[in-house]
Amino acid sequence: MSDTAQIDITSSAAARVAAIAGKQGKPAILRLAVDGGGCAGFQYKFGLADAIDADDAVAERDGVQLVVDSISLDLVRGSAVDYVESLGGAAFRVTNPNAASGCGCGTSFSI
């Protein structure tokens, strides 16, 4: 986990972020945010970031940074972001110890 031990990114996710960022010519920074909605109440949003904001929590692995804003951090503290390939497709997945329940799609959760 990062030195703040608030969030983590696996080497599989870091490698995927590095590949995507490289193709797009962007910094290897993955932003995880939480929005209201989805089938369980909250949903994860992923996107490449151009910079790290002052209030972001940061985890780093293999030269890739995962950033989470301070509001979203309250909902994902202690989580790890992984990249999983399966028969259902490939996607970033969040293992969130704060989630009371999730949904089949893996992108929505409740507290």
Would you write up a description of this structure?
By secondary structure, the protein is α+β, with helices and mostly antiparallel strands. Helices cover 19% and strands 45% of the residues. The protein has one domain (7-110): HesB-like domain (Hypothetical Protein Aq_1857, Chain: A, Sandwich). β8 and β9 (108-110) form a beta hairpin. The longest helix is centred in the first third of the chain and has 14 residues, at 11-24. It is globular. The two termini are 22 Å apart.
What key phrases describe this protein's structure?
2 helices, alpha+beta, 111 residues, 9 strands, three-stranded mixed sheet, Hypothetical Protein Aq_1857, Chain: A
Shape: globular
Biggest sheet descriptor: 6 strands, mixed
Proportion in β-strands: over 45%
How many helices does DSSP assign? 2
Summarize the model shown:
With 111 residues, the chain is of the alpha+beta class. It has helices at residues 11-24, 70-76, and strands spanning 7-9, 29-37, 41-48, 57-61, 64-68, 79-86, 89-95, 101-102, 108-110. The strands form 2 sheets. It has a 6-stranded mixed beta sheet. Strands 1-6-7 form a 3-stranded mixed beta sheet.
List the helices and strands and how they pair.
Blueprint (H helix, E strand, L loop, with lengths): L6 E3 L1 H14 L4 E9 L3 E8 L8 E5 L2 E5 L1 H7 L2 E8 L2 E7 L5 E2 L5 E3 L1
Parallel strand pairs: 1-6, 2-5
Antiparallel strand pairs: 2-3, 3-9, 4-5, 6-7, 8-9
